[in-house]
Design goal:
homodimer; Molybdenum Cofactor Biosythetic Enzyme, Chain A; Maf protein; 3 domains; 6-stranded mixed sheet; 24% strand
Chain lengths: 441, 441
């Protein structure tokens, strides 16, 4: 759910005039992103470049008001570019700059703008040099990549042969960028962003993220709405980041005094939701757990059954985790639970592997890995098979063993598919450790 | 990269006529998907409903030709719906059916179609009953969810209060669906799909996926292009599914004789790329490895360093993995490598943890987990820190120990960020095991 501020929505009329009153065009405040490529209209691939570009544009104080995804069809793409520039003063097109017939962005843009494509000798040399450097014969079709929109500036491509293009007239800007993220991102940073920064509002946007654990979106909103509605200039968005974890995003244009308001709102929300706060500045749960252990000079190991290594994988996403994380035992079968973790056979026979007694033994057993201060254990039924009336699919036991004979356990029942149950189990295990560390059980 | 077939692109003119020649409208062949919701225009959330719907529409023989993402702006959304229905005969809108002021899909659709919204007593009863059943007072605004486009059919929502809507006139169809996937998907399956099936071509699309390992997109295309270009009626798409893994998707409308052509093309591609074939019917590498081990009655354990549990996590995504997968040791520190896997201290001191000698010892050590037939080991430098001139970031050793003293090892150098290196390392380890099992090293 999203609660927009009153200031920056639809600030630009749907059909802004092409001509400006004075010589200096107004700053760019809204943009449209168009992604070109037939593979983006298959079930297999989502457009992710637009998430990167949205974050970057927001930093410049530019709001994205529409995203359009088009295949390799010149007519439809030309229409989308023309409409985009009619309704917003900035349009970015990603993809379709390759050398083949399917790469239609250049001719589509030319048609939309009503300008010719001109072969640029300098770009032609760059394309030829790229193939010479690799001692590969250049297919003639690659010279298409040297065709520029009349009046456009070439944006050099450090990692490929297709230059981007920056075209501006009467306060309207069209930017063509390559589709592969590893080509797009450096070109954006080094070539496009500096040009757009001059044309945008100086200040950019403020952004603050709070993360919360084990609370649903609607419960977060119940607690947060009475507070954030007092700050109408700040847009508050509540999102489920992963099963068990909620993100609260606060965003606002960076005008005078606004930074203090965002900080105040964040502080008030953090206080109101303190019992569920993972972090007040956006850090992930695995990162705050590792930082907390590092600050205490303590270490951790895991014992995982149904999650099969996912808790270890999550913790080791954090660079430098080895300072804190000894490792783990993936005890997927009962034999390994017995042999490597010391779970007694009678527990497995009488209570089963998904039981309080088993998770206690597993949490203690994790402390066999070079004697860490903390042992964290997960055992459950991820599904789709293996459930029973007493222990349905989604039943998970979590355990945390620590210094001074601390041993905290809890059961959870998660709903949804196998992967969702596993992700929720890992989150809840890290959350149990986090609460135990903080004494907030 | 994508190589479209010649048959089904732009089959429908950009501006089809509203009126039809005969009483029976032509079958639906193209569609536009519009996603409504301000959170989809933030950097934090991609539209994924459209991937699901695209797969489903393709099954009905309907191609998606444009996707548009709009915020909570009634004007812009109405414009998008009107244009969508002008240019395609089927438009699906997801999201914006909630009870708040931000949920603008109903009024936007009414404006686009030029029809009024009418409060439906039956839907009103359903909304009231939903709150009564939960003994919760109903906010008056929730009755907005009972407002129907004049002439539309309500699509009941089994998991929420917002019904979907199905509206049809003169061969044009507009479908409104809720945004949450767990509400959208059952409504699609049970309510919308049966209606659209009657309006689509009977046959649907054929789809076949091949998966390939350790080969780049351009190398796959070099080998595949001379073959698939002989089948112009089949669309071939080459995608990187994850670091190290390529997917080849073959798709075609299911007309007479086409199924045999798709099977023939798939067979020829599988033969040409046999040395790199993961599966000829789309199964993941972890699934084919587990199936192969299960067929032999063999078992597996892993020893992971830099991947921290990711190989175990990947293997245990497959339901029923416990038949084959004993578990693993996450040996993140040298102490755990020594104590749990039996890696000699002198190896760690002289050659380091990222070395051939260490990965050999780790692969053998993995066989301590209840004596599996196979032990698979990964040790490397995922970065960003920890590299050296001799062992730069991205250096990974992989090892596979098995029956009859089999012990295969190899080194790889991966490029990119920490997560990419880790994913590629897991893929290569499973690939090493797969090749060893098949004797195709």
């Amino acid at each position: 759910m999203m609660h927009p501020s009153s200031e920056h929505s639809s600030a630009e009329p749907l059909r802004a005039k092409d001509t400006q009153q004075s010589g200096t065009p107004p700053p760019l405040t809204t943009a449209e992103i168009i992604a070109a490529g037939a593979e983006l209209l298959t079930p297999f691939r989502a457009d992710t470049n637009s998430l990167y570009l949205t974050s970057e544009l927001n930093e410049l104080g530019i709001e994205v008001v529409r995203k359009t995804i088009i295949g390799d069809e010149k007519e439809r793409l030309a229409l989308a570019i023309a409409r985009g520039l009619q309704e917003n003063r900035l349009v970015l097109v990603t993809g379709g700059l390759g050398p083949t017939e399917d790469d239609v962005t250049r001719p589509a843009a030319a048609r939309a703008l009503g300008v010719p494509l001109v072969r640029d000798p300098e770009q032609e040399n760059i394309v030829r040099a790229w193939f010479d450097g690799r001692q590969t014969p250049m297919p003639e079709r690659n010279l298409r990549q040297a065709e520029m929109l009349a009046g456009a500036t070439a944006l050099p491509n450090a990692l490929g042969t297709a230059p981007g293009q920056y075209w501006e007239r009467e306060g309207r800007v069209l930017v063509l960028l390559p589709g592969p993220p590893r080509e797009l991102q450096p070109m954006w940073r080094e070539q496009a962003r500096p040009r757009l920064r001059e044309r945008a509002r100086a200040a950019g946007w403020l952004h603050r993220t709070l993360r919360l654990g084990e609370l649903g979106e609607s419960r977060v909103d119940e607690a947060a709405a009475p507070i954030y509605t007092q700050y109408p200039a700040i847009t508050t968005t509540i999102l489920t980041a992963q099963p068990g974890e909620i993100e609260l995003h606060l965003r606002a244009p960076n005008v005078a005094g606004r930074a203090e308001q965002v900080a105040e709102l964040a502080d008030r929300l953090a206080s109101a939701l303190a019992g569920h706060l993972v972090s007040a500045h956006g850090e992930s749960l695995e990162r705050v757990v590792i930082s907390a252990l590092a600050a205490r000079g303590q270490t951790l190991a895991v014992a995982e059954s149904c999650t099969g290594g996912m808790a270890g994988e999550r913790l080791t996403r954090v660079p430098g985790a080895s300072q804190v994380f000894n490792g783990g035992i993936i005890a997927y079968t009962n034999s390994v639970k017995q042999e490597m973790l010391g779970v007694e056979k009678t527990i497995l026979e009488r209570e089963g592997a998904v039981s309080e007694a088993c998770v206690r033994a597993m949490a203690r057993g994790a402390r066999r890995l070079h004697q860490p201060d903390w042992g964290l254990a997960i055992t459950g039924i991820a599904g789709p098979a293996g459930g029973s009336p007493e222990k349905p699919v989604g039943t998970v036991w979590l355990g945390c063993a620590g210094p001074d004979d601390v041993l905290e356990v809890r059961a959870r029942r998660f709903h949804g598919e196998r992967e969702r149950v596993r992700q929720a189990a890992v989150f809840s295990a890290l959350w149990l450790l986090w609460q135990t560390l903080n004494g907030t059980m």
